[in-house]
Amino acid sequence: MGRYVARRLLQMIPVFIGTTLIIFLMVHILPGDPIRAMWGDKAADPAQVASLRHEFGLDQPLWKQYVDYMGNLFQGDFGKTFGGREVIDEMSESFPVTLRLTAVAMLIEIIVGIGLGAWAGLRAGKAADTGVLIFTLIVISIPVFVLGFLARFVLADQLGWVAPNVQDSTDYAQLFLPGFVLAMLSMAYVARLTRTTFAENLRADYMRTAMAKGLPRRRIVGVHLLRNSLIPVVTFLGTDIGGFIGGAVVTEGIFNVQGVGNLLFKALQQREGSTIVGVVTVFVLVILVINLLVDLLYAVLDPRIRYA
Amino acid sequence: MPDVTETKTEAAVDAVAAPSAADAQSKDKPRSLWGDAWFDLRHRPMFWISSILLVLLLVIAAFPGLFTGANPRDGDLTNHFLTKPELGHLFQADWFGYDGQGRSIYARVVYGTRASIMVGVGVTAAVTLVGGLLGMLAGYFGGWLDSVISRVTDIFFGIPFLLGAMVVLNAFTDRKVYVVILALAFLGWTSICRVMRASVITAKQADYVTAARALGAGTPRILFRHVLPNALAPTIVVATIALGGYISAEATLSFLGLGLGEPTISWGIDIAQGSQDIRDNPHALLFPAGMLSLTVFAFIMLGDAVRDALDPKLR
Amino acid sequence: MRGAKSAKWVAGAAIIALAATACGGNDKDSDSGMNSGKADPNGILTAQLGEPQNPLQPANAKESQGSRVLRTIFSGLVDYEPGTGKLTYVNAESVTPNADSSVWTVKLKPGWKFHDGTTVTSKSFVDSWNWSANVKNNQTNSSWFQDIKGYEDVHPAKGKPKADKMSGLKIVDDNTFTISLTGPVSYFAYKLGYDVWAPLPESFFKDPAAAGQKPIGNGPYKFVSWDHKKLIKVRKFDGYQGPNKAKNGGIDFKNYTTADAAYSDLRSNNLDWIEQIPTTSLTSYKQDLGDRAIDAEYSAVQSIVPAFYTDQFKDINPKVIQGLSMAIDRDTITKTVLHGTRTPADSFVARGVLGYKPGALGDIVKYNPAEAKKLIKDGGGVPGNKISIQFNADQSHKPWVDAVCNSIRKATGVECVGDSKPDFQADLNARDNKQVKSMYRGGWVLDYPVNSNFMRDLYGTTAAGNTSGYSNKEFDALAAKADKAKTLDETVKMYQDAEQLLKNDMPAIPLWFYKNNSGQSTNVFGKIVYGQDGDPIFTDVQVKAKK
Q1: For burial by CB atoms within 10 Å, which of A64, A171, A183, C297 has the most?
Q2: What ipTM score was computed for the predicted complex, to two decimals?
């Protein structure tokens, strides 16, 4: 187990370097000159552009920019934005916001998704099952931003049940609507996945055995069925956290959430390499660690899986 | 997929999946997995509903002119600015009302079918081919090949959707359908790769693979005859669900200003524009969004049916 | 549109950024309780703001958001009268030119104080300008000082600055200084109304970066706090001596990423002033807000510009461009697709600018399909019979581009498509590198309210704002002569003649002028009045006393 974890940690190094390098190159490939663009439609002053470019190290060859950036990164310096702020400050403002949003979305996804899925799975083939199936199909069929507009229109503007926008990101009541929209798609997937594994495992030998032993139904479903059925669901949830953080761009934009998605979107439009690479670096680290945790959890849940 | 050893294929390891073999009448012949699936499919109403829907959509995509005489590009601002739908006027230009540019929404919905279907099918094909192949290789051979492919998957997983899409789309001056397909495939192959890898790993440990190997079957034979058919089901499920997702993703790209370029007509572009008028003229959003959802719905329903048919455990 | 002060970045739904001048609220207040109750002189106003891109240094606000805050904290020498665009003195007692307008003498009103208690003197201005103009201080608006003698010493085209002072600035006494220019500029005093000419206190120069986070100015409000991406607070400065003393207790600038979010806060009275009504509500905001809706034009023009370096337009007959212009149904498009947020343009120069002449372009901007077809045919047709209009998709340009194309296609049979670039930087990059395929979206917000700004700075052969490759020697000569005219009136008159010359040559197709479409909450007492810079005159806004 210890060796397995060590190997996984070692594997993170090439992924980390590869991702930062690719992102660095991609930002460079994008058309546009961030310094020149500060002048907008108006003409830029070449002397000032050159001076600013030097200030941000953009006059260096690309490989040197990358090496310098990585060197600073290992000393905990994420660089500065074109506005002169520390990227680390911007990130420490926005990451907690997105984490809170993700927590809300996760909670909704787990409770509603697994609940619906289990309910349908236990009634496979019946009307309730078909109802849940059609509901999840409809949810999956609607693009997230349409869902966002519709949800706000109906739940906030028409019914007035929830706040339409997020003014205070520490207020979980305000985060409900964007969290709900963010969770919807994954929730449908989780529900379908849970339903399938439930229905499958209901016919498994161990279930027949458990039933033959005369165990109470509650124990069969709650212990045997749930534990075995949740393995693929847990895997999905794990990878989904990454999806949430990355996919928050649209949701955060619609609902005025000042999170990582918004930060990344603006940084992209401004071609602000330091912010983009910084955000993605943290993002990739989070995903890698979560993946490792999920795999370890996998072994806990399924005794057949052992890591040497 | 924890347990796949109980499949009926064991008995019919090398049976050819000819349709005739699958015929329910010939009870004396053993049926293959796929023959079995076909037999099962034909008895599912979901399969027929989705198939009919999809055939209809394909016909619309191929021959939009058959369904409307209205021009989807030319609008008339003075007369038709956001005219409300006339639901009684079946198949007329004003059936679904007019959009902000005074264009017939019905005509645009009909002509937009092609782009969305092409994006969905194109991306799924590309992703299944590339991701499926890489996932199969990684899962079956393991070792350094697995390490490399898995690490590359990890790297791609870290690239933000928006950044990746912008880079690919910016590399081309004309944002035609194939460019959008390329961009979405570039970002989407990793999920299929992971699913395929996982199911190949499970499938190759199965007893029948060991048996086939013991009987002296070569690697390609084992891979394509025994491992692949048994590992394909989860991939197909993910791919059909993802197909709908890709059609939605095209709409999301349009919403972010990165979608298909003029003069292509697509639901995504219309949905993005319609969302600007949602308060007063929701029909400009609802009809293209409804068509898109219906299409995605049909594909996923078909995927479900195929999946259930392929997975004998649920029978 | 992005202008001098409008490089604004908005997530999600794009908003039309605004900047520049408005003609002020001209609606006569009817009723709706806007004027009932009492004003509270210490009431706090909440206004919409995006995160300023740069530190709050006077010459570093290249976009409208930072500029909005700076203008409350700093007062310049002069300002423009809302509506007429006439000069009014603020910190200056007088600004007077010599005979040929090449040397200007500034007299200050004595006894003005910065917020930290130090006195505003000639030195505060001269030091500020010298610092801002210096290339190594990286101020984005540094080129505003280029008319002053000695600018090349502090701001050479290449290499390090040779001096840290411009020789053209001379301090006469504590309240008098002179500005020597490299040549005559008859409208120089007009330029002094821009943010960059603000004075700076001694403390600024010790740590300019820190001062950019916590600015100390001489304006009607003093800076309190900046909670990044959330809130900027300014409060009334009791020691303020200027004519525009604050009639409220201070302003909380609240950050919004979307116009929709801001609008719903405005309707629930959590926000008192919104910058721009979201596109989703443009058709209904006047019903929603009643006479709290604000609808006023400002001095900015949108046009489509042929790329004259392309094979298509290299040797084009101007008649073809005139024909294309007449194929655009501006009246209908502004009323329908643009929801009345613009008014049809009838001149190269925006309304509200000195020298604007109504109907200067005559029939060329009137919709006339038959004449359009004829002109294009007479001019030899559009090469390839197909044009495209490049625009950036991160702002809501697509609807009008589609509508313009549709109009041209239907009127003339010339194929027209929108050519969308994913974001502003990609769009700008293609324009700067002369990669535009056919035509592109152009926009211009005034820098100073004189008609020369809409012509020489855009269509002069060597003008930095000329990215289309347009060149007309006759126009260049006329512009050079106009700039050297003795009086402002003569300059303006000569530019009006130059406009007629451009009419025949069509360096661009003007489409429409911009409008401010915004609104105020029920907390505001009376109607908000707009200034020449397109923002409300915040000092004049009154807040209702709580009952």
Answers
A1: A183
A2: 0.79
